[in-house]
Amino acid sequence: MSFRLADSSKMVGGTDATQKAIQQFMIGQKGDEEPVHDENKKLVRSVGEYHMTIRQAEKRYSLIFKRFCSFVEGEWMVCDDQLGGILQSIANIRSRLPMEKKCLNLVAHNSQSENWMSSGFNQQDPHSSLVMSKEDIEISFSHDLIQHERMMASARSLLSSLSECQGALNRKLNEVVNHHREYEGFFLQVKNNPALFIERMNEIYAMLSIELYRKQCLVHTVLDTNIDDVLSANSSKSGLGNNFGPMDLPETTAKRCCIEWPRGSKYSFVNMVRLSQVMLFHESTAIS
């Protein structure tokens, strides 16, 4: 009987393919290559998402800031200027009403006491030389009264709109503050911290808030005036106001409101230089 030795390769490791697989596993050629590659991919993806998040957050800061500044210029200031124009119209009407009322009283008095002057031979009506007839004066007086009431109603409406504009600015400020709370940790290492937008917005909002209160006082000084006081040229009453004394006439009160109204006046709480700087910064800001 003869014996044949078994193939050592089959006894130890099986086929050649199995041995090659074992060798590759032992030296780490295939077993470690793909996991390391997957981890690098995840790391690169994570870093990319982080930078994208920062960029998107920066854009959000810039967008809210631009909307805030655009609203100040396009809504708050426009409404403020319109309200100033309404007060000027009220002051002009109030300067005419007492004169028209006085003329009507004078014409009525002369008509009752001097009718005999035109009843003689070759006598003329003493009112025939007047530039305006009684009817003309009555029409002018009635028109100014109606316009005065319309201007007063417009002043109330615009004052309410100005308050709503301030409320809208407050909501935009809250929006950027909430956004900052969510992404505050992302900007610790950023050179130009977008939180500077919040400081500028808060500064402008504070100025406009106290300016709104000042102008509310001015408008209510005009609105609280009684129409009888407006028609009386010798009235000693006036509404309560900032710098108005008890002897101010309604006409004078309205004119003084117009003088103190502008944002650039010495009575204003708005720092026009600082406001212009922020508006210029808003125009030059571009985070893309």
Q: Mind explaining what this structure looks like?
A:
It is a single chain. The chain is an all-alpha fold and 288 residues long. Helices cover 72% and strands 0% of the residues. It contains eight helices and no strands. It has helices spanning 8-12, 16-27, 33-113, 134-183, 195-223, 227-231, 250-260, 272-284. Helix 3 (33-113) packs across helix 8 (272-284) and helix 4 packs antiparallel against helix 5.
SSE order and pairing:
Elements: H1 8-12, H2 16-27, H3 33-113, H4 134-183, H5 195-223, H6 227-231, H7 250-260, H8 272-284
Secondary-structure-based class equals mainly alpha
Shape: rod-shaped
Q: How much strand content do the residues show?
A: under 5%
Sequence of secondary-structure elements: HHHHHHHH
How far apart lie the N and C ends?
91 Å
**Total number of beta strands:** 0
Rounded to the nearest angstrom, the radius of gyration is 41 Å
Mean pLDDT: 76
Identify low-pLDDT runs: 1-14, 29-36, 234-241
Relative helix content: over 70%
Number of helices: 8
Largest sheet: none
Quick recap:
The protein is mainly α.
Please give a handful of descriptors for the protein shown.
single chain; mainly alpha; disordered N terminus
